[in-house]
Design goal:
Blueprint lengths: L31 E5 L4 E5 L5 E5 L2 E4 L14 H9 L3 E2 L7 E5 L10 E5 L2 E6 L2 E6 L1 H13 L8 H19 L6 H18 L7 H10 L1
Antiparallel strand pairs: 1-4, 1-5, 2-3, 6-7, 8-9
Length: about 220
Protein backbone atom coordinates (compact mmCIF):
# COMPACT_ATOMS: atom_id res chain seq x y z
CA UNK A 1 0.00 0.00 0.00
CA UNK A 2 1.46 3.35 -0.99
CA UNK A 3 1.57 5.88 1.81
CA UNK A 4 0.42 9.20 0.45
CA UNK A 5 0.27 11.28 3.61
CA UNK A 6 2.49 12.58 6.37
CA UNK A 7 1.99 9.60 8.66
CA UNK A 8 3.80 6.30 8.46
CA UNK A 9 3.94 3.12 10.55
CA UNK A 10 6.85 2.42 12.86
CA UNK A 11 9.80 1.08 10.96
CA UNK A 12 8.97 3.14 7.89
CA UNK A 13 12.11 5.19 7.32
CA UNK A 14 11.11 7.59 4.56
CA UNK A 15 11.38 11.31 5.16
CA UNK A 16 7.60 11.60 5.33
CA UNK A 17 7.46 9.88 8.74
CA UNK A 18 5.80 12.22 11.23
CA UNK A 19 7.80 12.75 14.41
CA UNK A 20 4.85 14.32 16.24
CA UNK A 21 2.77 11.16 16.11
CA UNK A 22 -0.87 10.57 15.32
CA UNK A 23 -3.35 12.80 17.17
CA UNK A 24 -5.69 9.87 17.87
CA UNK A 25 -6.93 8.47 21.18
CA UNK A 26 -4.81 5.34 21.77
CA UNK A 27 -7.58 3.69 23.80
CA UNK A 28 -9.70 3.67 20.64
CA UNK A 29 -6.99 1.84 18.68
CA UNK A 30 -5.61 -1.00 20.83
CA UNK A 31 -3.51 -3.89 19.61
CA UNK A 32 -5.57 -6.68 18.08
CA UNK A 33 -5.61 -9.85 16.03
CA UNK A 34 -7.95 -10.77 13.22
CA UNK A 35 -9.95 -13.97 13.46
CA UNK A 36 -11.63 -16.23 10.93
CA UNK A 37 -14.81 -18.23 11.48
CA UNK A 38 -16.13 -20.75 8.91
CA UNK A 39 -19.62 -19.19 8.98
CA UNK A 40 -18.46 -15.62 8.37
CA UNK A 41 -18.12 -14.88 4.66
CA UNK A 42 -19.21 -11.92 2.54
CA UNK A 43 -20.22 -11.87 -1.11
CA UNK A 44 -18.81 -8.95 -3.11
CA UNK A 45 -20.66 -8.39 -6.39
CA UNK A 46 -18.96 -6.77 -9.37
CA UNK A 47 -20.10 -4.89 -12.46
CA UNK A 48 -19.83 -8.01 -14.64
CA UNK A 49 -22.78 -9.68 -12.95
CA UNK A 50 -20.68 -12.08 -10.90
CA UNK A 51 -18.61 -11.57 -7.77
CA UNK A 52 -16.42 -13.27 -5.20
CA UNK A 53 -16.74 -14.80 -1.76
CA UNK A 54 -14.25 -13.50 0.80
CA UNK A 55 -13.89 -14.19 4.54
CA UNK A 56 -15.40 -11.67 6.93
CA UNK A 57 -12.69 -11.41 9.58
CA UNK A 58 -13.44 -10.14 13.07
CA UNK A 59 -11.03 -8.33 15.41
CA UNK A 60 -10.05 -9.52 18.86
CA UNK A 61 -8.96 -6.36 20.68
CA UNK A 62 -6.33 -6.61 23.40
CA UNK A 63 -8.31 -4.42 25.79
CA UNK A 64 -7.79 -5.33 29.46
CA UNK A 65 -10.97 -6.58 31.11
CA UNK A 66 -12.84 -7.10 27.82
CA UNK A 67 -13.64 -10.39 26.01
CA UNK A 68 -11.62 -12.57 28.42
CA UNK A 69 -8.51 -10.38 28.21
CA UNK A 70 -7.33 -10.15 31.81
CA UNK A 71 -6.75 -6.90 33.69
CA UNK A 72 -3.02 -7.04 32.94
CA UNK A 73 -3.58 -7.44 29.21
CA UNK A 74 -2.83 -11.19 28.97
CA UNK A 75 -4.71 -12.46 25.91
CA UNK A 76 -3.96 -16.19 26.16
CA UNK A 77 -7.33 -17.02 27.75
CA UNK A 78 -9.18 -14.81 25.26
CA UNK A 79 -7.54 -16.56 22.32
CA UNK A 80 -8.16 -20.01 23.79
CA UNK A 81 -11.85 -19.20 24.30
CA UNK A 82 -12.24 -17.93 20.73
CA UNK A 83 -10.54 -21.02 19.31
CA UNK A 84 -12.79 -23.23 21.44
CA UNK A 85 -15.73 -21.58 19.68
CA UNK A 86 -14.34 -22.37 16.23
CA UNK A 87 -12.37 -19.21 15.48
CA UNK A 88 -8.92 -19.24 13.88
CA UNK A 89 -6.43 -16.51 14.80
CA UNK A 90 -4.92 -15.11 11.60
CA UNK A 91 -1.14 -14.93 11.71
CA UNK A 92 1.31 -13.38 11.08
CA UNK A 93 -0.25 -10.19 12.39
CA UNK A 94 2.55 -8.09 10.87
CA UNK A 95 0.90 -8.62 7.48
CA UNK A 96 -2.21 -6.69 8.42
CA UNK A 97 -1.36 -4.46 11.40
CA UNK A 98 0.34 -1.08 11.12
CA UNK A 99 1.63 0.35 14.43
CA UNK A 100 1.99 4.13 14.65
CA UNK A 101 3.41 6.43 17.30
CA UNK A 102 0.71 8.48 18.96
CA UNK A 103 1.06 11.92 20.49
CA UNK A 104 3.26 12.05 23.57
CA UNK A 105 1.30 11.78 26.82
CA UNK A 106 1.73 14.17 29.78
CA UNK A 107 3.78 11.49 31.57
CA UNK A 108 6.25 11.48 28.69
CA UNK A 109 5.27 8.10 27.26
CA UNK A 110 4.53 7.72 23.56
CA UNK A 111 1.50 5.46 23.03
CA UNK A 112 1.07 3.15 20.07
CA UNK A 113 -1.85 3.37 17.65
CA UNK A 114 -2.77 0.06 15.96
CA UNK A 115 -4.64 0.03 12.66
CA UNK A 116 -5.28 -2.51 9.92
CA UNK A 117 -3.10 -1.65 6.94
CA UNK A 118 -6.23 -0.82 4.94
CA UNK A 119 -7.25 1.90 7.40
CA UNK A 120 -5.04 4.82 6.43
CA UNK A 121 -4.58 7.93 8.62
CA UNK A 122 -4.98 10.94 6.37
CA UNK A 123 -4.55 14.62 7.38
CA UNK A 124 -7.45 16.98 6.79
CA UNK A 125 -6.74 20.56 7.79
CA UNK A 126 -5.73 20.27 11.48
CA UNK A 127 -7.38 16.87 11.96
CA UNK A 128 -6.64 13.29 10.99
CA UNK A 129 -9.23 11.04 9.39
CA UNK A 130 -8.82 7.27 9.12
CA UNK A 131 -9.84 6.31 5.59
CA UNK A 132 -10.73 2.86 4.30
CA UNK A 133 -8.62 1.46 1.45
CA UNK A 134 -10.99 -1.11 -0.07
CA UNK A 135 -8.53 -2.42 -2.67
CA UNK A 136 -5.87 -3.21 -0.08
CA UNK A 137 -8.42 -4.88 2.18
CA UNK A 138 -9.91 -7.10 -0.51
CA UNK A 139 -6.47 -7.97 -1.89
CA UNK A 140 -5.44 -9.20 1.55
CA UNK A 141 -8.59 -11.31 1.97
CA UNK A 142 -8.22 -12.67 -1.56
CA UNK A 143 -4.66 -13.73 -0.78
CA UNK A 144 -5.77 -15.65 2.29
CA UNK A 145 -8.25 -17.62 0.19
CA UNK A 146 -6.03 -18.25 -2.83
CA UNK A 147 -3.04 -19.32 -0.73
CA UNK A 148 -5.06 -21.89 1.20
CA UNK A 149 -4.12 -20.36 4.55
CA UNK A 150 -7.78 -20.46 5.57
CA UNK A 151 -10.24 -23.33 5.12
CA UNK A 152 -12.27 -23.06 1.89
CA UNK A 153 -15.83 -21.79 1.85
CA UNK A 154 -18.31 -24.50 2.82
CA UNK A 155 -21.20 -24.84 0.31
CA UNK A 156 -23.61 -24.96 3.28
CA UNK A 157 -22.47 -21.46 4.25
CA UNK A 158 -23.22 -20.22 0.72
CA UNK A 159 -26.70 -21.70 1.02
CA UNK A 160 -27.19 -20.08 4.42
CA UNK A 161 -26.13 -16.61 3.28
CA UNK A 162 -27.99 -16.88 0.01
CA UNK A 163 -31.09 -17.85 1.95
CA UNK A 164 -30.89 -14.65 3.96
CA UNK A 165 -30.71 -12.56 0.79
CA UNK A 166 -33.60 -14.56 -0.67
CA UNK A 167 -35.68 -13.81 2.43
CA UNK A 168 -34.89 -10.10 2.08
CA UNK A 169 -35.91 -10.19 -1.57
CA UNK A 170 -39.21 -11.92 -0.87
CA UNK A 171 -40.03 -9.55 1.97
CA UNK A 172 -39.35 -6.40 -0.03
CA UNK A 173 -40.77 -7.70 -3.32
CA UNK A 174 -44.00 -8.61 -1.54
CA UNK A 175 -44.34 -5.22 0.11
CA UNK A 176 -47.67 -3.91 -1.20
CA UNK A 177 -47.33 -0.47 0.39
CA UNK A 178 -45.93 1.12 -2.74
CA UNK A 179 -42.74 1.91 -0.87
CA UNK A 180 -40.13 2.83 -3.47
CA UNK A 181 -37.32 2.01 -1.04
CA UNK A 182 -38.61 -1.55 -0.69
CA UNK A 183 -38.73 -1.92 -4.46
CA UNK A 184 -35.13 -0.73 -4.78
CA UNK A 185 -34.00 -3.11 -2.03
CA UNK A 186 -35.78 -5.97 -3.81
CA UNK A 187 -34.06 -5.06 -7.08
CA UNK A 188 -30.67 -4.98 -5.36
CA UNK A 189 -31.32 -8.31 -3.66
CA UNK A 190 -32.38 -9.89 -6.96
CA UNK A 191 -29.14 -8.70 -8.58
CA UNK A 192 -27.11 -10.10 -5.69
CA UNK A 193 -28.87 -13.47 -5.95
CA UNK A 194 -28.19 -13.63 -9.69
CA UNK A 195 -24.52 -12.75 -9.13
CA UNK A 196 -24.19 -15.39 -6.41
CA UNK A 197 -25.65 -18.02 -8.72
CA UNK A 198 -23.21 -17.01 -11.47
CA UNK A 199 -20.14 -17.18 -9.24
CA UNK A 200 -17.93 -20.18 -8.52
CA UNK A 201 -16.08 -19.75 -5.21
CA UNK A 202 -12.32 -19.48 -5.58
CA UNK A 203 -10.27 -22.51 -4.62
CA UNK A 204 -6.84 -22.44 -2.97
CA UNK A 205 -4.04 -22.40 -5.53
CA UNK A 206 -2.38 -25.49 -4.01
CA UNK A 207 -5.57 -27.48 -4.19
CA UNK A 208 -6.03 -26.40 -7.80
CA UNK A 209 -2.52 -27.60 -8.67
CA UNK A 210 -3.09 -30.95 -6.98
CA UNK A 211 -6.33 -31.43 -8.88
CA UNK A 212 -4.60 -30.63 -12.19
CA UNK A 213 -1.77 -33.06 -11.45
CA UNK A 214 -4.26 -35.82 -10.63
CA UNK A 215 -5.87 -35.52 -14.07
Amino acid sequence: MALVNAYAPKGYTAATSAAAGLPLNPSDYPDFRLMYHPKRWTFYANEEGTGEWLPNLAPLYFTPGVACVDKDGDVSLAMAEKMRRGWIIVEPAAEYIAAYDGRQLPNGKVPTIYLPVWMVPTPLANEVRVKYDRDTHLDYLRGLVESGRLPPLDPDVIELIRGRVQDEYERDAGDGSGDGKAARRAEAAAATLAAMDATTPAKPAKAARRAKAAT
